[in-house]
Amino acid sequence: MSDMDDIDRRFQELTAQIDDEERRKRSRAVEREWAHLPRFRRRRRRRIIAASAAAVTAVLVAAAGVLVTYRPELLDSARTVLAERLPVFEESPVPAPEETAAPGAEPMVPSPFDGSPAADYADGAEGLVMPPARAVGGLGKKDVARLLGRTRALLEASNLDHRTLLEGDPVPFARLLPARDRAWFLQNVDGKKKRRGEHVDTRYWLTSFAPGSASLATDVIKVHGTAKLSSFREDGASGALVKVDYLFVYAVHRPGLPYTTRRVIARRLGEVGMYREDGEPVIWIRDWRSGGVTGVRCDVDDAFVHPSYEDSPEDEEATRATGAPVDPYDLADRSDGDCWLASRT
């Protein structure tokens, strides 16, 4: 027997190993395994089976590799025989995963303001929009612009400055006051100067969280409100007056416990005027006060803000509150009283 005849014989024996009966057995085994797979894994399992069939083909071709050197045409024959005798598995198309973000993009982090009107409010001082400066009340446009700028700065210092909010420092606000008001304000912070029958605490002019009661969950403070410019005449004096009504929405949590995050809404009302005295423009704080704070305890009256967390002790003062709940986001609501119920935070 010649070498070529011997090669032909060995090749036929090799390919005959996968006969019709073997093909049927393999097909039945595959179908049984396929039928018992969980539905959510079927696509992956089918791809693995398809890969296994390709591996079998590779082994057979490798075993016949020695033939290629002598009779390359036999390789084509082997491919044809294998294609006929191996079961064909149709691979289901795998849909591409839905793109949710650009590659390398930072994951979206939920905002603590989501689900409230504050989500649409401006961030920080961007929300303190003053009306355009104009000549009014006998004052020129330049003087009125100075009045508007000082009013905006007072709002920032009383409700946005971190020293005011978290450290209780009154200086950022005090330094913006007219000299004659500054000393009086500082003397009465935290009720330091008491008079008979009178208790004044200018801490109410500020939004300061009680020491150790809160940390900001985010540096973003949401701001929304109005500022109106008009003229005034009072006690023989005339000038310009800016009336402000603003909401400041904070996301706070117990220090070191971010899972306690909640919203606190502080409302600031104020009137800041300017008139001429001896020919010089003078800034005058006509009114500056809290319009109420929501999301805090009612049973502590020290002018600091004490957030009410889900795990806080029961607030006995709040349990005695009566009347319909108010919406703290409604600037048209002028509810008055020591403690009232809120419809939301």
Automatic annotation (TrEMBL):
Sequence ranges of Low complexity compositional bias: 92-107
Ranges that cross the membrane: 48-70
Keyword field: Membrane, Transmembrane, Transmembrane helix
Name listed for the protein in its UniProt record: Uncharacterized protein
Region Disordered, annotated ranges: 92-117, 307-337
Naturally occurring in which organism (per UniProt): Planomonospora parontospora subsp. parontospora
